[in-house]
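User: For my dataset I need records formatted as: sequence, then structure tokens, nothing else. Please produce one.
Assistant:
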Amino acid sequence: MKEEIVKFDELDISENVKKALKEIRYNEMTDIQKQSIPYILEGKDVIGQSQTGTGKTASFGIPMIEKVDKNSKKIQAIILCPTRELAIQVTHSIRRFLKYQDSIKCMAIYGGESIDRQILGLKKGVQIIIGTPGRVMDHMRRKTIKLDSVKMVILDEADEMLNMGFEDDIETILKDVPKDRQTVLFSATMSKRILGIAKKYLNNPRNIKIKAKELTVEKIRQEAIEVKDKMKDETVCRILDVVEPKKAIIFCNTKKKVDTLIDVLKIKGYKAECLHGDIKQSQRDRIMKKLKIGDIKILVATDVAARGIDVRGLELVINYDIPQELEYYVHRIGRTGRNGKNGIAYTFYTGKEKLKLREIEKYANTKISEGKIPTLKEVDEVKSRKIVDNLEEIIRKKEFKNVEIIDELLAKNYKLEDVSKALITKLISKEPIGQFEYDFTPDENGNVRLFLNVGRKDKIMVKDIVGCFKAYTALTTDSIGRVNLLDNFSFVDVPAGYVDEVMRSVKGQVIKNKKVNIEIANV
């Protein structure tokens, strides 16, 4: 059955708000907006289960504006958000809705900014406050905000506020607001703690939940890649090299992993920064500014730190760790594939996490296709193309430098063709391209037999060799051919396209305290 289309201009709201919505191309309502706005306009309490990118800010923002008395300068509505970034983002959206409502003012209140500056702003008269619980509590203690005239409270991303330890602050704030207020709660998940707050502070609320199929972003190519833990960092780098995103976010489940991965990326020369709970606010601001203007391309973050961050032009999301909560998957990948553009989302998983992957598919009503680790050959091809593109650009713009080197070589009677080849060879030698070249003839199955200096006497089993190959290369269990384990050495068949990769990545590794040497087998 075709879904009913409801437009914003059909709502019983002021013409000034309709004019602002039309200007920012808010035409048709999303599902969460269709279901929640009428009830909120009626003054009813609402619980909305909704993910990022579904339009929840308009769901509560538009009816909230309609309820504000523009003739009063007192605080009449308060929106609580888990992070500074989300508070700023929500404030920006509310101000867009208020473009033609000059007499209604809103203000963001959060930590990391001068509280004295905020006090000056409050003294000018503000009807709507958008803030983090901690900073709102600071103002309450200073008596610089009074909540006795508040008619509406919105708890945005309530689950994250509880995860960040704001439960006591939220309860303190709600107790200070008149009991006859209207309360609206939005949350990605509905835990017992969320339901407890709803039962305690909401009055006969209307429950609205987005169906799983509506949480799926259709323009995102979703792939899952089975990766050993040791190969995750290398796989991230290969994906970045092959995809070459203008902007990307990599999600890790822990602050420790964020820190170790960002070190790896910076050492390898990627323009990357990280966000997690230990990053100071001033530093967060600098990082987000650099990402916005393109000084950095890659952000490595935890789920909580990334809440409220809206990165325009995001092309790639990598789930370095499979999300701890099913809902986080949609929240993560929903940051790409927006505004009609395509996006890519890769999710790394280990063998034992395959069940969790199936649970995510069921929850989000989506299909995550099986992907593969890019091979070093694929990475090299991309880098080679980039070198060719760069050379063509230099030729086109005639931006030649140090050309006297060529003249010097030509003066020694070297051919121009040989000089060109030598220069390209020298240039490419700075990149990991063509570093190893081996002479071999594949068998009828396209495989090449490799000799390993490890065997049964080293207490090594077939699974150890297969595990090592999988841990350091793009090879999978299915792509590794026959493994012939003997007493003092072993033979392994691998596809011809992976020979260089095995030589680069496995040669020199250690299996059961034995350093591995690999050669092309003489068969």
